[in-house]
Amino acid sequence: MKIACVGGGPASLYFSILMKRQDPSHDIAVYERNPAGSTYGWGVTYWAGLLDKLREGDPESALAVSENSVRWSDGVAHVGDRTTVHHGDEGFGIGRRRMLDLLAERAVSLGVRVEFEHEVTAGRLPDADLVVAGDGVNSALRERHADHFGSEITLGRNIYIWLGTTKVFDSFTFSFVETDHGWIWCYAYRFGDDHSTLVVECSPETWTGLGLDRASEADGLALLEKLFADLLGGHGLIGRAQADGSAQWLNFRTLTNRTWHRGNLVLLGDAAHTTHYSIGAGTTLALEDAISLAGALRDHQELESALAHYERERKSALLSVQSAARHSAQWYENLPRYIRLPPAQMFALLGQRHSPLLPYIPPQLYYRIDRAAGQLEALRRFKRWLGPRVARTVQARSHR
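Above: the chain sequence. Below: its structure as tokens.
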């Protein structure tokens, strides 16, 4: 096959690696519009299960990713002057640029052409048997046929910004700070020996009340450094200002598509779907897309059959993850409901934020039920059964 991958993210690169391993005669090119080494974001997170899947697909790139990752085994939550630690939350972090470099090097070693500063326009697709749209949530290739794909975007209520810092966190860390205008909080994790990612989030009322909507990036970073001074311990924050000097505050966009392919064009990763950053699954899901698409092309001779199988498989796998991401985002949007709980309870419900049942039960009652369910298997099964049904019933009533 002649394959063109548009967008040089992790999914496109890993897909090209898998396809070359399946058949070295495939003619594969990855086109990235940006220069080599210029990538957005700081670090990405993943869990051990992803490494197992990467080892199955390509042990060499899996080893390179593993050797260049850092790991943590605890979760820490700071709420004002209170701190709670939860042991056993093992995860991994790696710099996004480092991951892209490793995957690109591996792809090139297998014979893939990786072309930087090569923009593919929606009106002129490459001449190929298969065109993979891995060009992100703003995919130009998808938008050209948005009606066919049935693209829908839902904006989250809260405002967030991705930042970096030289403060190195040994644990995955949450920090909640109360201000005169409401709560503001961050998620922080290290992705290397000398840097961490720090994502700041707050309600729109807090954002405007603090003046972050009007502040330049420099002034905004100075204010955030003051608010999170205890957490940062003297370290600064690093932003990525826009051309006009403003900070890149965003509302999260949850993207879904009715179908993922059209003729020989198929969507991959964030071009096909997004899940709220608070569950830390974006990179993992994109790489799993690549694994699924490569597997479908291996197992089905007809392209249409392969793409249809890929779409069915990934849509099915995403159902539970998308539900978890939706409820996680809503937990933070309803933070005042939980923030005054005793520290152990608040942190326990932070860990349970993916539950479809939690929004509909008083938090302290849910905590007691969850504790009891940990001891009784029958109650645990009932809780899993009840949650989705309560959520569907409430959502159905809200749409009448």
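DSSP finds 14 helices and 15 strands in the chain.
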